[in-house]
């Protein structure tokens, strides 16, 4: 088990290395002087000379990559020319809202989607099943920001139940913190619920055809026990897998949701940095999000062995 | 001559499949509904100039921020009056939202179709060779793993940020994250087909690599690729709208659904129609493409439908 985790950890190194090379070469592939691009529009020629020296831009490309990756590994992503701040500090400042939003969304999605999928599978072919599947296709089709603005319009503007936009740190009161996260989390969870409910339905359906389910029914267990303990448990692996894969959707959604709800998180930072052509920040955010994505999927792989003792490595 | 080497027998296989599939497809109400909605939107996009639209880029400060149904009276040179009804209201620059939504269908459908075709073509070429040539496989798949590790929207945003905004940049930016998904699909088909007796037979009679791949392996990738292409088109239409909405997509004067919504953001509380109308049409379009994809998947690729 430990050996397996170590092996999987090692396997993420080449993936992250490829990501690093891609992110690094993004800037070098564009026409123009990378130093001028990194320095930004407002830079003086002295700034550009400094950056060229700092990044070693006069040296061979491989050396440049080595310098850059060496800095990145020590957490030095350079300075954001837009915010005039170390990118690492900037990311730390912005991580809180994003983590809160992601955690809320994740919880909401799993608690809504898994029961929906299980019920749809259990009542396969009935109107409940059709509604759940219909919602699932719809969830994939409606853009995140349309959902967000519709929710704002109904619940914040017309009904005046919740704040329109904004974010309040948890330190300034838990009530305001939760209130401001409700609409963004619902917005962001729609596509995630659609994805998870769909997979939950399919994998439970597959399990329901197994012999041991018939046996469980035959020995007189209630439907609930059969569904929860026998069916869901065995259907868990694909569900967990898709939760991991869906993190990519979640990250993409965070970028949009934070813009709609004016939440000062990493997603908003990404958009602002792209609009300001703040490349050091863009590079750092992409590296970070990809790293988190890879790490979560590693965690998912490891969880297989816990959830399904039949899987042995 | 063996059956495997008989071109007629090979050609017949997929053709028979296609005929049967088409009939089954047409009996599937989901597919028919999806195709019908999509056809209507396509026709609307093509016939945009004749659908009571005015110039979608025409700025008119006199009629800024009008609600749907607003009637604008124009005095002609001869003294007569013309009334323009702004069915969906106007935006902050006084442009007619109805006209922009109708013309916006063009950009969305163009991006969806272009991204689907280009990413499938590139992914197919890479996947076929990576799956068949073992020495290439390792390098290509590591590269694809790396690309897949970057969330699609993030990668697309980063790519457009590097070039000047425009239709081509947006298409390229959406194609790049989709390629690894196609490559993986194609490769998995190639790997399973490579061991089939008829491929072994073709190898043993000395079929060169290129004809072998094109004639014996390629046809197997077609059904799952059609399904995949449909889903790619749906996601491309969504990502294009997101890029435009965030302000990094197609330039704002071009009417796209994302651009109309981006325009409507500031005054959303008072004039929600700028987001509502394009949002509904966009969702309907993506829904139609997804419905088509689900139907195609159930008909062409029953194995995949069981997995999902």
Identify the notable features of this structure and list them briefly.
heterodimer, A: 313 residues, mainly alpha, two-stranded antiparallel ribbon, 13 helices, 2 strands, globular, B: 308 residues, two-stranded antiparallel sheet, 11 helices, 4% strand, elongated, disordered N terminus
The best one-word shape of chain A is globular
Number of strands of chain A: 2
Number of helices of chain B: 11
Q: In which order are the strands of the major sheet of chain B placed?
A: 1-2
**Strand runs of chain B, count:** 2
Percentage of helical residues of chain A?
over 70%
**Ends apart, CA distance between termini of chain A:** 7 Å
Measured as a percent range, the helix fraction of chain B is over 70%
Main β-sheet description of chain B: 2 strands, antiparallel
Task: Provide an overview of this structure.
The complex is a heterodimer of chains A (313) and B (308). With 313 residues, chain A is mainly α. Helix content of chain A is 78%, strand content 1%. Chain A has 13 helices and 2 strands. Chain A has a two-stranded antiparallel sheet. In chain A, α7 packs across α8, α10 packs antiparallel against α13 and α11 packs across α12. In chain A, 40% of the residues are buried. Helix content of chain B is 71%, strand content 4%. The longest helix of chain B is centred in the C-terminal third of the chain and has 38 residues. The interface between A and B is large, with 51 and 46 residues.
């Amino acid at each position: 088990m430990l050996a397996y985790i170590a092996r999987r950890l090692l396997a993420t190194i080449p993936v992250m290395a490829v990501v690093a090379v891609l992110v690094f070469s993004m800037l070098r592939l564009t026409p123009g002087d990378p130093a001028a691009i990194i320095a930004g529009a407002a830079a003086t020629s002295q700034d550009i000379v400094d950056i060229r020296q700092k990044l070693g831009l006069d040296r061979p490309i491989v050396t440049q990559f080595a310098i850059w990756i060496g800095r990145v590994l020590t957490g030095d992503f350079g300075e954001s020319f837009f915010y005039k701040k170390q990118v690492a500090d900037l990311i730390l400042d912005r991580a809180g809202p994003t983590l809160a939003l992601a955690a809320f969304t994740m919880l909401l999605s799993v608690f809504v989607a898994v029961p929906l999928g299980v019920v749809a599978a259990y009542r396969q072919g009935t109107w409940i099943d059709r509604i759940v599947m219909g919602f699932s296709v719809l969830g994939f089709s409606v853009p995140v920001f349309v959902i967000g603005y519709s929710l704002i319009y109904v619940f914040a503007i017309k009904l005046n139940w919740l704040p329109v936009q904004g974010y309040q740190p948890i330190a300034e009161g838990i009530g305001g913190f939760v209130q401001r996260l409700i609409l963004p989390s619902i917005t962001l969870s729609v596509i995630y619920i659609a994805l998870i409910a769909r997979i939950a339905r399919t994998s439970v359906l597959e399990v329901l055809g197994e012999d041991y389910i018939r046996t469980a029914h035959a020995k007189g267990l209630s439907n609930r026990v059969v569904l929860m303990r026998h069916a869901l448990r065995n259907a868990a692996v694909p569900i967990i897998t898709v939760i991991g894969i869906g993190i990519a959707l979640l990250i993409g959604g965070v970028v949009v949701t934070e813009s709609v709800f004016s939440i000062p998180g990493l997603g908003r930072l990404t958009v602002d940095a792209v609009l300001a052509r703040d490349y050091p920040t863009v590079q750092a955010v992409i590296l970070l999000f990809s790293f988190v994505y890879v790490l979560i999927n590693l965690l998912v792989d490891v969880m297989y062995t816990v959830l399904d003792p039949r899987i042995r490595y | 001559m063996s059956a495997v080497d008989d071109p007629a027998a090979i050609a017949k296989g997929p053709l028979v499949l296609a005929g049967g599939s088409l009939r089954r497809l047409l009996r599937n109400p989901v597919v028919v509904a999806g195709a019908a909605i999509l056809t209507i939107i396509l026709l609307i996009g093509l016939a945009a100039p004749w659908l009571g639209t005015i110039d979608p880029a025409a700025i008119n400060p006199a009629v800024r921020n009008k609600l749907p149904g607003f009637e604008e009276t124009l005095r002609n040179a001869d003294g007569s009056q013309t009334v323009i009804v702004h069915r969906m209201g106007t935006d902050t620059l006084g442009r007619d939202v109805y006209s922009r939504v109708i013309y916006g269908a063009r950009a969305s459908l163009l991006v969806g179709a272009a991204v689907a075709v280009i990413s499938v073509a590139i992914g197919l070429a890479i996947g076929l060779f990576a799956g068949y040539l073992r020495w290439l496989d390792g390098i290509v798949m590591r590269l694809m793993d790396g690309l897949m590790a970057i969330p699609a929207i993030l990668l697309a945003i980063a790519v457009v940020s590097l070039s000047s905004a425009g239709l081509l940049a947006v298409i390229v930016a959406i194609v790049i994250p989709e390629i690894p998904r196609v490559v993986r699909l194609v490769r998995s088909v190639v790997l399973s087909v490579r061991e089939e007796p008829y491929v072994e037979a073709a190898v043993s009679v000395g079929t060169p690599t290129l004809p072998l791949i094109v004639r014996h392996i390629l046809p197997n990738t077609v059904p799952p690729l059609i399904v995949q292409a449909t889903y790619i088109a749906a996601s491309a239409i969504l990502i294009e709208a997101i890029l435009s909405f965030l302000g990094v997509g197609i330039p704002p004067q071009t009417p796209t659904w994302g651009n109309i919504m981006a325009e409507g953001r500031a005054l959303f509380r008072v004039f929600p129609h700028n987001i509502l109308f394009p949002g509904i049409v966009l969702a309907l379009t993506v829904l139609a493409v997804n419905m088509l994809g689900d139907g195609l998947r159930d008909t062409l690729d029953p194995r995949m439908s069981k997995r999902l």
